[in-house]
């Protein structure tokens, strides 16, 4: 990026960013890249780690406590990247109430709690919410009904934030992420025919690196993206163009 390009998009010097799901994958990359553009970044994850605030983001009380603590310690809160995610694969008839609550709690409810807790700290000076949705938020993948529901909901949440808080200078963007090489993908899509079918849906024939998704999160939050709000920002390497074909391929293969 040239100096001119940097001036166009701006930086986040002096801004405070909160990232959930920060211990690995897209979240860990997001922490690094937000720091690279000058932000003070606080990472949150269920898994303890160096520089990570440990919290269960599906618990509204814990979310409120973390958000208030960050705003109090740093004097402000400017950007929230709601990135925590989990999936329990299976068809609706095979999933338990506990499975449903686990996935919705982390992937959907947590982001609502983040908005509810953080907007009060943003109204005076504006702010940005970035939610890691998925191409599952625009077209369902087999055997992931609750995950599909949750990721669809994040696009609606981004739209709602834009409508309800736009007058206070608060923006929201949902990232429609494509196939990305993360720990969750390694667990649910081990190397083999299913992984190959996933990678083959992108124009490059590969999975994205977590940094490629994190760059989109940073882009959405930069001052130069000030008119970007209430939308789904697709970062899927062209995967949704072949999503239906991939779904048919998956259904012919042995899957979890």
From TrEMBL:
PROSITE patterns: ADH_SHORT. One of its GO terms (molecular function) is (S,S)-butanediol dehydrogenase activity. It holds the Pfam family adh_short_C2. It comes from the Bacteria. InterPro entries: NAD(P)-bd_dom_sf, Sc_DH/Rdtase_CS, SDR_DHRS6-like, SDR_fam. It is an enzyme of class 1 (oxidoreductase). Its EC number is 1.1.1.-, 1.1.1.304, 1.1.1.76. Gene3D superfamilies: NAD(P)-binding Rossmann-like Domain. Keywords: Oxidoreductase. Belongs to the short-chain dehydrogenases/reductases (SDR) family. This is Meso-butanediol dehydrogenase/(S,S)-butanediol dehydrogenase/diacetyl reductase. It comes from Actinomadura luteofluorescens.
């Amino acid at each position: 990026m040239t100096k001119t390009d940097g001036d166009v998009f701006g930086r986040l010097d002096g801004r405070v960013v909160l990232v959930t799901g920060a211990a690995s994958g897209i979240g860990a990359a997001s922490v690094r890249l937000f720091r690279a553009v000058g932000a003070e970044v606080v990472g949150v994850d269920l898994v303890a780690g160096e520089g990570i605030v440990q919290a269960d983001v599906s618990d509204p009380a814990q979310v409120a406590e973390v958000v208030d603590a960050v705003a109090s310690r740093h004097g402000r809160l400017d950007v929230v990247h709601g990135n925590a995610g989990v999936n329990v694969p299976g068809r609706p008839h095979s999933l338990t109430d506990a499975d449903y609550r686990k996935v919705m709690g982390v992937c959907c409810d947590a982001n609502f709690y983040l908005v509810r807790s953080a907007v009060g700290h943003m109204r005076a000076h504006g702010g940005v919410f970035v939610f890691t949705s998925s191409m599952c938020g625009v077209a369902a993948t087999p055997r992931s009904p609750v995950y599909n529901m949750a990721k669809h909901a994040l696009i609606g949440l981004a739209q709602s934030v834009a409508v309800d808080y736009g007058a206070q200078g608060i923006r929201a963007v949902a990232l429609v992420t494509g196939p990305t090489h993360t720990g969750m993908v390694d667990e649910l899509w081990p190397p083999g025919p299913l992984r190959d079918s996933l990678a083959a849906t992108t124009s490059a024939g590969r999975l994205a690196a977590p940094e490629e998704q994190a760059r989109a999160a940073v882009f959405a939050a930069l001052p130069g993206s000030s008119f970007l709000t209430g939308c789904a920002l697709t970062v899927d390497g062209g995967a949704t163009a072949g999503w239906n074909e991939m779904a048919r391929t998956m259904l012919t293969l042995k899957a979890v």
